[in-house]
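Hi U.,

Before I forget, here's the chain from the pilot set. I'm dumping it here mostly so it's searchable later in email.
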Amino acid sequence: MDKFVVRQAIKDLHTNAIIGYELMIQGDVESLYNSSTDSAAANAMVAFLTENSNRIFNDKQTFMTFTPSLLFRNTPKIFDKDKVVIQIEDSIIVHPLAAIIIGKYRDEGYRFAINDFQFTPKHFSVMEYVDYIRVTIQEKMERTALASLMNLVEMAHGFQKKVIATGVNSGNTYEVAKIAGADYVEGSYIADDMITKTSKMEYLQGNLYQLIMEITKDEPDVEVLEEIVSRDASLTYALLKMANSAFFAAYNETASIHQAIVRVGINQLKQWIYLLSFKEGENASASEETLKISFMRANFASAIVKKLKKFEITPAEAYLLGMFSTLEYMIDATLEEILEELPISDKIKNALISQEGDAGKLYEMILSYEKADWAEIKKYAGELGIQTNVMAQIYMECVEEVNEIWENVIGVQEEAETPEAEAAATQEIPEGASQTEG
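Structure:
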């Protein structure tokens, strides 16, 4: 059975903060939860999540839909009750033992969400057990349907329940969710909205720009990297703080830029430099999510290309494809103008601008994965010649890698942006230190 998994962000409609992710799992062409054999679906999900669960979770909540079999098999107990929200559907609600099984998990501290809540007795029968009510927003809603939705949201709030509007795949549905009074929103439009709401930089300049250009070469020159970093107090401070952290098993401290670069390694240094290319805007949550999207696309694209035979771009170029896919939200210019100034191949430029060639198909497949568009994923996977189960495993490994990098680097960035950090770096790293040490 082909298995796909993807996380979709759930955003607070009022603060723009990301409150969690829905874990969406797909088996074959049909939805996992509509499989003809419930036990087969349960076995697939149990096996998959048992193997990969630690790679999914971070500090945010994860919303997962469980079939009756999964609940009866105590599958939720694989996960930390403080991090997982159990989503239930009609197949659970109509089960004769629904109240008993839901009550048991509730007593143990698990939280619940109802998918596609409706004004029916069966949905109201489990209202006392749930924390979240999920409603689907349609692209075209008649006035009566909108009025009904608004009444439902008002009723949910009366019961002290939070409402998640799903299916928010366009600006129109986003506005409907706001009018209806939903608390949270989820859908393909949300990822785009989070990116476009990130504060734009006027331009990418100076040392940081040179670092990006050097680190993305097939064979970066460590001496050139050292020279660029040594010009900037904040970059020097941040690099040394990271290199001397426990994450890199730093038993002996170093004040040498050269040694720090060698210790961190080119792959981690690449991620760190790109992270620093973002300035913190007013919308911190949106900025954070944009960074994660960029990291994920870059790592995912590069890892996929490594599995393909005789592909038209290299893994290093595929990394650039993913990393530069959000450049127009970092720099106040069109994507065409930005890419024109970058020394990257025409295949990457054409893939990003007009989705041309196999590189364009790779880019489209990554975007489809973000949107959980199973049909498009299978189409592009077939055209590129990669098995979907292999791609699913690559995705999980990339989620784990991005989470690890983020947790260990974001703190370094925040600390390096303070005036005290710059002063400390100036004192700790005397002029010419990088030339005399290491």
